[in-house]
Amino acid sequence: MTVAIKKPAEDIPDDEWNALSLSDQAFLEFIYEVFDYFDEVVRQKLGWKPEQIQINQGKNNIVLAFNHDQKRYLFRVPKYGRQQLQRYMRAAQLLEDQPFFSERIYIDGNCMIETYAPGVTLNQDAPSGAYIALAKALNLMHQQKGQGFGGLRVGTTGHDDSVFDHYLPMMTERIEDLKQLFPNQAVSLDAVFELWQQKLNSISSPLCLCHGDLWSDNVLYDKDTDHLTIIDWDSCGIYHREKDLHFLLSDDVPSANKDLFFQHYDTEPDWQLMSWYRVTMNVLYFKADRGSHLQTAVNHFFEQMKTEERLVIDSDTI
User: Fold this and answer.
1) What is the rounded CA–CA span in Å between residue 313 and residue 292?
2) What is the pLDDT of residues 41-95, one digit of tens each?
3) Which of 5, 42, 174, 279 is the least buried, fewest Cβ under 10 Å from its Cβ?
4) Residues 273 and 242 sit within 8 Å (Cβ to Cβ)
5) What distances in angstroms separate CA 23 from CA 36, 63, 283, one per listed residue?
6) Helix, strand, or coil here: 79?
7) pTM summary value
8) Same-domain status, 273 and 125
9) Do 66 and 51 meet the contact criterion of CB atoms below 8 Å apart?
């Protein structure tokens, strides 16, 4: 039975509220809860007087940016439960002394407050110094070896026993889903899955501490201070270093900056494994508007694995 959601505030007109879907009503109710908890923590518990409050929706968090005592802070509330904060705390235990990790001000089971990190993301206009700084930061993080695989459980131990346990069941299911969505590409999808398993069985790259969800928007660089900050540590865990590096394969990253990064990164990566991770992420998190991303990732993997097979996705079939 569908249960109606009560309006979170009386100033929302009835007709506007009723026109929302149940999922939109639930999300708006969540936003109001976030503001209520912000008031409870920031104003009541900490006794701060926040100013210039701005709300943003990230992939995994609702973020309220605000000023207090001439400093900027971020109030983060996880979308998917307190396990996100638990993973952040485990990452902080290992990395909070590193210069690329934001200063933590407050954390409880529902939210966290950290200092605001100035700078620009690694977009196409990012200065070359950002890629040098990122390479140096990852050198520090990736030197921490780990065991197990996946999100942090205790210390530098991953939650799963192996990369097989972590990815193989999900990939098997998602490849079948894609074959249903693109039946005329079933042969190519079977081919990429066969090569994917071939690479899975031959991985030799060591396991280490990784960010786990590194991409351009999770890296901030302040060119005035030459300071780099890595944010959003919800996926921090034990993986192969190539999981943190595969975003550099994107055409959005200028070739000169890629070269500069790898000149300052201490270890030669497994390029096939970088491409393998790129395919893995594009398959597992495929969305209808990202068909071209999947095609690019798969075909690059085919090239790395020395095969003439190619995937061709017709956007009209999505």
Assistant:
1) 7
2) 999 999 999 999 999 988 889 999 999 999 999 999 998 888 889 989 999 999 9
3) 5
4) yes
5) 20, 20, 26
6) coil
7) 0.90
8) yes
9) yes
